[in-house]
């Protein structure tokens, strides 16, 4: 009788370990992969439940296979996303100045966990090993280059293969590389004197920014603009403080912002009237629904932002009506949402 009780206690303990994700359970359907940091990881043959602790990788999963995504790192912006996806829980994660919660992740019972960007910069093996120790049997898969504008192809195809969404990954990569070629063909023929001077206005007063070379302002460089901010780059979250006097001296022809409050007030603020972009009414508020087009997160959600930024810097070359056609296609195919004319008006 005591032996039977002992067996029951062992079985109960084993089940607790399995439920908490602390004891690995393998089956014939498991497979070995090499993640993007060269780590050998055992993952399910068929993946149906996915979490990521970093927004760029989370958004890729949503684009490729939304039915497999268990939760967001932050709530999507605005209304341009289907309710069934909007209602997914917010599970946080490691990005910007945020720290995730292991208990929350484990309670969601993901089959794999992805991480591609930490609050300290590009993810490393030490970070991934730490996540694996804390997540127990949940396979932790490292992802690379999910924030570099011209290097999305590798991560799109890697995640597509990992989660069984190869066809959708092919479609997304084809769309993306087509846009890259169009922009690169244009910028390669653009002389230095022809480049538009651009300031990226961050913060409610527009007095924070990121210089050329920062992941946060990368679309300016990529689309052929000349970032006027002559300040030292700041790793991680970025946002370097500058003065109004500096901005007036830089005198940009275009200002791009993601801050609605700054955009609402910039034309009424007498200090900003000394800046050419304000006088010429070339201050542009980047769309952010359901995810930022220009920045934060700095991931493949910026694909429509490539077109938008190019059209704002060089409207004679990139016509708004042509951009809108491509944006509608992107939302339909990869955000799983059909844009209405009223949506386009609000976005632009």
Q: What structural keywords apply?
A:
348 residues, alpha/beta, Rossmann fold, 2 domains, four-stranded parallel β-sheet, three-stranded parallel β-sheet, 14 helices, 40% helix, 12% strand, globular
Largest sheet: 4 strands, parallel
User: What is the succession of H and E elements?
Assistant: HEEEHHHEEEHEHHEEHEEHEHHEHHH
CATH H level of the largest domain: which superfamily? Nitrogenase molybdenum iron protein domain
Mean pLDDT: 89
User: Total domains, how many?
Assistant: 2
Q: Tell me, what's the shape?
A: globular
The CATH architecture of the largest domain would be: 3-Layer(aba) Sandwich
Q: Assess the beta-strand content as a share of residues.
A: 5-15%
Structural class: alpha/beta
The count of strands amounts to 13
Which CATH C-level class of the largest domain is it? Alpha Beta
The residue fraction in helices comes out at 40-55%
The CATH topology label of the largest domain is Rossmann fold
Radius of gyration: 23 Å
Helix count, DSSP H or I runs of 4 or more residues: 14
**Low-confidence parts, pLDDT < 50 over ≥5 residues?**
16-28
Distance between the termini: 74 Å
What report would you give on this structure?
It is globular, with a radius of gyration of 23 Å. The protein starts with a helix and ends with a helix. It has 348 residues and is an alpha/beta fold. It folds into two domains: 16-172, Rossmann fold (3-Layer(aba) Sandwich), CATH 3.40.50.1980; 190-347, Rossmann fold. The strands form five sheets. Strands 10-8-12-13 form a four-stranded parallel sheet. It has 14 helices and 13 strands. It has helices spanning 2-20, 55-64, 83-86, 102-107, 125-135, 152-162, 166-188, 218-222, 244-250, 260-266, 276-279, 303-313, 320-334, 341-347, and strands spanning 30-34, 40-44, 50-52, 112-115, 117-118, 121-122, 140-142, 197-201, 208-209, 226-227, 240-241, 254-257, 283-285. Residues 16-28 have low confidence and may be disordered.
């Amino acid at each position: 009788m005591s032996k039977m009780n002992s067996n029951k206690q062992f079985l109960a303990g084993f089940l607790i370990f399995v439920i908490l994700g602390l004891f690995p359970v393998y089956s014939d359907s498991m497979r070995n992969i090499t993640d993007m940091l060269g780590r050998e990881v055992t993952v399910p043959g068929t993946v149906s439940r996915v979490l990521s602790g970093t927004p760029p990788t989370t958004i890729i999963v949503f684009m490729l296979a939304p039915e497999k995504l268990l939760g967001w790192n932050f709530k999507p912006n605005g209304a341009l996303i289907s309710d069934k996806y909007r209602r997914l829980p917010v599970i946080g994660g490691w990005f910007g100045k945020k720290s995730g919660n292991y208990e929350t992740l484990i309670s969601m019972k993901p089959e794999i966990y992805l991480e591609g960007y930490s609050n300290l910069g590009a993810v490393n093996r030490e970070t991934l090993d730490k996540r694996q120790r804390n997540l127990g049997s949940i396979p932790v898969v490292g992802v690379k280059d999910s924030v570099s504008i011209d290097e999305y192809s590798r991560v799109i195809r890697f995640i597509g293969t990992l989660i069984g969404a190869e066809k959708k990954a092919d479609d997304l990569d084809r769309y993306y590389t087509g846009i890259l070629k169009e922009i690169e063909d244009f910028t390669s023929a653009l002389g230095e004197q022809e480049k538009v001077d651009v300031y990226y206005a961050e913060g409610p007063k527009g007095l924070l920014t990121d210089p050329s070379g920062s992941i946060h302002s990368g679309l300016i460089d990529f689309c052929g603009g000349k970032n006027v901010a002559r300040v030292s780059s700041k790793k991680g979250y970025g946002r370097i403080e500058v003065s109004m006097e500096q901005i007036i001296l830089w005198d940009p022809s275009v200002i791009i912002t993601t801050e609605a409050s700054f955009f609402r007030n910039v034309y009424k603020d007498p200090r900003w009237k000394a800046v050419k972009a304000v006088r010429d009414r070339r201050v542009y508020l980047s769309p952010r629904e359901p995810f930022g087009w220009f920045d934060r997160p700095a991931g493949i959600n910026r694909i429509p932002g490539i077109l938008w930024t190019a059209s704002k810097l060089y409207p004679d070359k990139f016509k708004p009506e042509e951009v809108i056609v491509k944006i509608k296609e992107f939302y339909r195919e990869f955000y799983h949402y059909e844009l209405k004319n009223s949506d386009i008006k609000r976005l632009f």
